[in-house]
Design brief:
about 400 residues, alpha+beta, OB fold (Dihydrolipoamide Acetyltransferase, E2P), Chloramphenicol Acetyltransferase, seven-stranded mixed sheet, four-stranded antiparallel sheet, elongated, Dihydrolipoyllysine-residue succinyltransferase component of 2-oxoglutarate dehydrogenase complex, transferase, lipoyl, acyltransferase, CAT-like_dom_sf
Length: about 400
């Protein structure tokens, strides 16, 4: 009996994805719950597992765009546990591995074979960039472009070989690599353009003295780690400061829906996380009710899930306000773009020792520039400035967050 491997539903807003890679080969014997493939969508990257054990037959290639519900493979359960068949299959595979030509016929994707047949280009002569050195459709197309341009470059090189070697002239065929934009990167690009077109974004700036927060971290870090098993970072202070600022200036805790202004009465804060696939903004729920240790634990869990590519759709949905920290990459100042339909976002930056005036004296303090971008359709300039000043006050005097001052 053949079991169909279908692309699962991953959320109401997701209709398709890119088959980023197969973890098995066509004809492999797979076990139940074994990871078969990696699927990349415009929001997350997820893994698909086998529902049953058996011999797998692949129906889609790496790099293909596949629809939700599409059959991308079949598993023949009759081959499960058949050691004789497995041994025969392994022997057959070993024999094929010793013959280069037949191996190419069985491992090349249908798209690669089609290009090879139409162009006469042998895939064995092409350097593969796919998983395990596998030749992809893009590799074949790149090789064809180089092959077509080769005669044009070879003629002048014969006529003036020394000049070509000593000082090659720039041409239109400069080295470059092309690849299809990932769904996540495509979605980010569309959202950035969309929010710029549909919102009236302004940014206000301020700077904050980090001495008090850094002093608290230094004083209580060891005890905090011993008690909670996780370090006390800067982000939990800023999350709490944002919650206090949203309470003081509720205009930034709102969103537009058509012609209606929706006021939020909860405090779910999104924190931008940079991953290999692109920027994601997982949401910390009910931050007004959480302690510093609970916020740090949530941040640690999301960071781990991001590294492992296991962030889910539910982790990214909702959120009333976002925080992004470009300082971890060395950014001194930036103008962050709001995460729609939210009305604001806080940008943190790198901490630098700078001279400032305190009580008529010039002192050196660890300073950070802060930026709040806001949707001017919802938020007035006075509100935005007041919001940022509230954050500044909370960070420079953390006791305010404990007593709600």
């Amino acid at each position: 009996m053949a079991i169909e491997v279908k692309v699962p539903a991953l959320g109401e807003s997701i209709s398709s994805g890119i088959l980023a890679g197969w973890q098995v080969k066509d004809g492999d014997i797979v076990e139940k719950d074994q990871v078969l493939y990696e699927l990349e969508t415009d929001k997350i990257t997820s893994e698909g597992t086998a529902e049953a054990a058996g011999k797998i037959s692949l129906k889609a290639d790496e790099g293909d765009e596949v629809e939700i519900g599409q059959v991308i493979a079949e598993i023949d359960e009759s081959a499960a546990g058949d050691s004789g068949s497995s041994e025969a299959s392994e022997k057959e595979t070993a024999e094929k591995d010793s013959e280069p030509a037949p191996e190419k016929e069985t491992t090349d994707s249908p798209a690669v074979r089609r290009i090879s047949e139409e162009s006469g280009l042998d895939s064995a002569e092409v350097e593969g960039t796919g998983k395990g050195g596998r030749v992809t459709k893009g590799d074949m197309l790149s090789a064809l472009e180089k092959k077509e341009s080769a005669p044009e470059k070879s003629a002048p090189s014969k006529a003036s070989a020394p000049a070509a070697k000593s000082e090659p002239k720039p041409t239109g065929d400069r080295p470059e690599t092309r690849k299809k934009m990932s769904p996540l990167r495509r979605s980010i690009a569309q959202r950035l353009v969309s929010v710029q077109n549909e919102s009236a974004i302004l940014t206000t700036f301020n700077e904050v003295d980090m001495s008090a927060v850094m002093g608290l971290r230094k004083k209580y870090q060891d005890d905090f780690v011993k008690k909670h098993g996780i370090k006390l970072g800067f982000m939990s202070f800023f999350v709490k400061a944002v919650v206090e600022a949203l309470k003081n200036v509720p205009g930034l805790n709102a969103r537009l829906e058509g012609e209606e202004l929706v006021q939020n009465h909860y405090y779910d804060i999104g924190v931008a996380v940079s991953t290999e696939k692109g920027l994601m903004v997982p949401v910390l729920r009910d931050c007004d009710q959480k302690s510093f240790s609970e916020i740090e634990q949530d941040l640690g869990d999301y960071a781990k899930k991001a590294r492992e590519g296991k962030i889910q759709i539910d982790d990214l949905q909702g959120g009333v306000f976002s925080i992004t920290n470009g300082g971890v990459f060395g950014s001194l100042l930036s103008t962050p773009i709001i995460n729609p339909p939210q009305s604001g976002i806080l940008g943190m930056h790198s901490i630098q020792q700078r001279p400032i005036a305190v009580d008529g004296q010039v002192v050196i303090r660890p300073m950070m520039y802060l930026a709040v971008s806001y949707d001017h359709r919802i938020v007035d300039g006075k509100e935005a400035v007041s919001f940022l000043v509230s954050i500044k006050n909370s960070i420079e005097d953390p006791a305010r967050m404990l007593f709600g001052a």
